[in-house]
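thought: user wants a sequence for this fold. calling inverse folding tool.
action: design(structure=
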């Protein structure tokens, strides 16, 4: 199975300039190839192939002095941009939806609107010493202390250098033989995911919603303030054109605040990601043979404002992605409970289903057997029993 890794690079100033140049070339090759592809198609030439795209760019850089600079950038970068584009078209043709014809359609990459990144040749990537790594096209090896004492795997796949607005990273994936075998300490662990708490385990542990932590609240307030500032500044600097329409433009100050906004977003995303890895780690440390999650989490979401809901959904799917690969690696079975399984409404003691349970009922009180239990803990216990329930109904 495939494992992904990401390590931070610490380029010096000159190297960083080259990184930006390479990322710009990646964007250029993508955009140029996209325009060419569309041209060929429109003029009845069918679907351009990789060879067609490469020939087009070759012609440009050898025949037009304006594009001579392309010769100074590793060819693997532009070639990969074309491969990425064609892959993107394949996805588009496969997923194309007549109701939303523009969805999945490859778009032009705009500077500042897309992740700065470029491809690395797999056969050229290597450590030169314990803290430096050779990047194609960059003369001196780039500093990377995160690889200290660790060897790069032999079978590296798809290495990329990316910029997150602050730091540069090298990411790559590699194949490992098989899942590690552990001594299981537990049969099944049920996990109820929600809004009040991020996760409640069927062993009774609660993991708070990180979005409600003081630090994230503070950052969200800061974000609001900066966003208000920036829109005020846009208004203040707006001019009116000949047609009486407002024209906005960026000042150095606006650029500065927008960069600050990106940094706050980045910080929030990092906190969320770290936390999800922490909770996923706690799941793995229970050494369960099986882990059960709900398939689609709709519970309680409807009451949430739209944006908060979107964020929450994104977080939950990211968490599930992390858990999926961690489980795969450890040989744990991951079961997604059917979304209609009444995990919240069922009494985990007697099995009675309380149809009238409201979202505001934080405590589950059973009218039949008298069980009194935290609502989410009750749901987690029911999820733990889910595999058993399913096999029962199958045999019945
Ligand atoms: Zn009961």
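)
observation: tool returned 396 residues.
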């Amino acid at each position: 199975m495939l494992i992904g890794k990401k390590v931070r690079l610490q380029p010096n100033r000159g190297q960083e300039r080259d990184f930006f140049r390479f990322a710009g070339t990646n964007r250029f090759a993508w955009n140029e190839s996209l325009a060419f592809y569309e041209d060929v198609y429109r003029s009845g030439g069918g679907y351009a192939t990789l060879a067609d795209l490469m020939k087009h760019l070759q012609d440009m850089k050898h025949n037009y002095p304006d594009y001579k600079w392309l010769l100074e950038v590793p060819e693997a970068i532009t070639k990969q941009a074309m491969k990425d584009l064609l892959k993107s078209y394949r996805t588009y043709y496969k997923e194309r939806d007549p109701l939303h014809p523009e969805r999945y359609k490859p778009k032009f990459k705009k500077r500042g609107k897309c992740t700065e990144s470029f491809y690395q040749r797999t056969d050229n990537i290597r450590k030169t010493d314990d803290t430096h790594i050779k990047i194609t096209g960059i003369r001196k090896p780039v500093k990377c202390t995160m690889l200290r004492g660790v060897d790069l795997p032999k079978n590296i796949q798809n290495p990329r250098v990316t910029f997150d607005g602050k730091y540069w990273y090298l990411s790559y994936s590699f194949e490992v033989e098989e899942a590690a075998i552990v001594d299981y300490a537990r049969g099944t662990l049920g996990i109820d995911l929600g809004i009040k708490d991020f996760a409640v385990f069927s062993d009774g542990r609660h993991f708070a919603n990180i979005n409600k932590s003081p630090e994230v609240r503070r950052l969200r307030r800061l974000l609001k303030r900066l966003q208000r500032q920036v829109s005020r500044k846009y208004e203040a600097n707006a001019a009116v054109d000949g047609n009486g329409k407002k024209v906005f433009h960026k000042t150095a100050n606006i650029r500065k605040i927008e960069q600050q906004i990106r940094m706050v977003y980045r910080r929030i995303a990092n906190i969320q990601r770290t936390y999800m890895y922490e909770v996923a780690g706690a799941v793995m440390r229970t050494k369960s043979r099986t882990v059960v999650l709900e398939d689609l989490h709709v519970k309680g979401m409807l009451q949430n404002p739209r944006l908060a809901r979107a964020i929450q959904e994104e977080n939950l799917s990211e968490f599930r992605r992390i858990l999926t690969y961690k489980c795969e690696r450890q040989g744990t079975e991951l079961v997604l409970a059917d979304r209609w399984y009444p995990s919240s409404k069922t009494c985990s003691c007697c099995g009675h289903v309380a149809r009238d349970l409201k979202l505001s009922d934080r405590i589950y009180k059973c009218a039949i057997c008298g069980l009194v239990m935290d609502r989410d803990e009750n749901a987690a216990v029911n999820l733990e029993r889910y595999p058993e329930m399913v096999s029962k109904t199958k045999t019945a």
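thought: summarizing for user.
answer: Here is the designed sequence. The radius of gyration is 26 Å.
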